[in-house]
Amino acid sequence: KATDYKEFVIRLVQALFNEHGLIQLNMDNPKLKRVFIPIIKKELTERASQELVQAQQDKLDQIGYKSQAHPRDINLFLLDEGSRDRITFEDNKYHIVDKNQSYTELEILNILNTSPERFSPNVVVRPLYQEYILPNLAYVGGGGELAYWLERKTQFEFYNISYPILVRRDSILILDKSSIKQIQKLEFKKEDIFQSNDEMIHQFIHAQTDDNIDLSKYIAQNNQIFKDLSKLAQAADPSLKNWVLSEQTKQEKVINQIEGRIKRAYKSREEINVNKITKLKDKLFPNNGMQERYDNSLPWIAKYGQDYISALMKHLNPLDKSFKIITIE
């Protein structure tokens, strides 16, 4: 039984990925914090991260990337008896927010040298810590995560820490047994589900009837007839040409109305299947968005167990930029 949230997460991740050779590292280890002392000291005394990150955020904002994390004058916390308190610098002293504590530079550096494990990086400095302790060739993440890492580039340069290559993670769509069965029953191919809801409905209805409900050929015939009529009318009286062409437009609208009514009639006749298509689209693309934006992995794990994890491990490859459809039966 886990005694705290950290232990719970460690056990959960181990249970899910242990057989795949996952190694977990406790970043609160005092030995690791001691290795990080030079960076913590620089953050305390030079306080460069705020200016560097804000300047980088301003540049990214100009090309459409929204700010991901708010930098502060000091991007560190001080741990003390179960509390994690923010450190600020004012009037040449280091103040502990919400506590009646302050330190001179000499005093806080003494705490750092004797107890580095008491210092905890915030969201702005955490990437520096992880890359300083475990340098990576590349970092794989989603769009928001990569925007967050782009904000750190000049910060990494200032602290002389190797900056990893940023790689966009895979985007996938997972089809379960019921979705696969529904796609097959409605006589669609997997690729068809990327069409809009209306396009799928039109494709389905067209497949159910021998009648061609696209009346564009009749519009073309109508246009040709009125073109000929306009010539005859113009020969009799040039002022009649515009009147004939206006009648052509009216007739074209009538044909479009007829096509719309025919389609609605077929939709009504196939109401049950039309609703199935709509529900399928809503399931696979919630709110017309990506499935991965709404669905959590835990229900899939609860239903399929290690088969789900194995399917992801088998198919995912961030160096292959194609969108992936993964079926789990």
Q: Can you describe this structure?
A:
It is built from 15 helices and nine strands. The chain has helices at 5-17, 30-35, 37-45, 49-62, 105-114, 126-133, 143-150, 153-158, 177-185, 197-208, 216-236, 240-269, 271-284, 297-304, 306-315, and strands spanning 76-80, 83-90, 93-96, 101-103, 119-121, 138-141, 165-168, 172-176, 324-328. It has 329 residues and is of the alpha/beta class. The strands form three sheets. It has a five-stranded antiparallel sheet with strand order 4-3-2-1-5. Strands 6-7 form a two-stranded parallel sheet. A two-stranded parallel ribbon has the order 8-9.
How do the helices and strands line up, and which of them pair or pack?
Blueprint: H1 5-17, H2 30-35, H3 37-45, H4 49-62, E1 76-80, E2 83-90, E3 93-96, E4 101-103, H5 105-114, E5 119-121, H6 126-133, E6 138-141, H7 143-150, H8 153-158, E7 165-168, E8 172-176, H9 177-185, H10 197-208, H11 216-236, H12 240-269, H13 271-284, H14 297-304, H15 306-315, E9 324-328
Parallel strand pairs: 6-7, 8-9
Antiparallel strand pairs: 1-2, 1-5, 2-3, 3-4
Helix pairs in contact: 3-5, 10-13, 11-12, 14-15
